[in-house]
Specification:
Length: about 80
């Protein structure tokens, strides 16, 4: 007579979900610091433009030129990191 065999228990325990840990690379930290420093400089030029006797031309020029300069700096950093690694 064929009797059904009971299911065998799994000998290896299932892996439990580990707690999520953020992974920050040096490239990401440099990029974040670059963006934050550009924002801080723009904020400084904005505050200076509100003082009497100061023109807003520095703030406007910096705000217009900053995105282009950030893109150039990021592309140079990426090229350097690719060459190093």
């Amino acid at each position: 007579m064929n009797s059904p065999t009971p299911p065998q228990p799994n000998p290896e325990p299932e892996p439990t979900a580990a707690a999520w840990q953020p992974r920050f690379s040096l490239r990401l930290m440099l990029l974040v610091m670059l963006v934050l420093s550009v924002m801080a400089a723009a904020g400084r030029y904005l505050v200076m433009s509100f003082q009497p006797g100061q023109s807003r031309v520095y703030f406007v020029l910096f705000t217009v030129a900053a995105p282009v300069l950030v893109l150039v700096a990021v592309s140079v950093m990426v090229a350097l990191f690719r060459r190093i690694s």
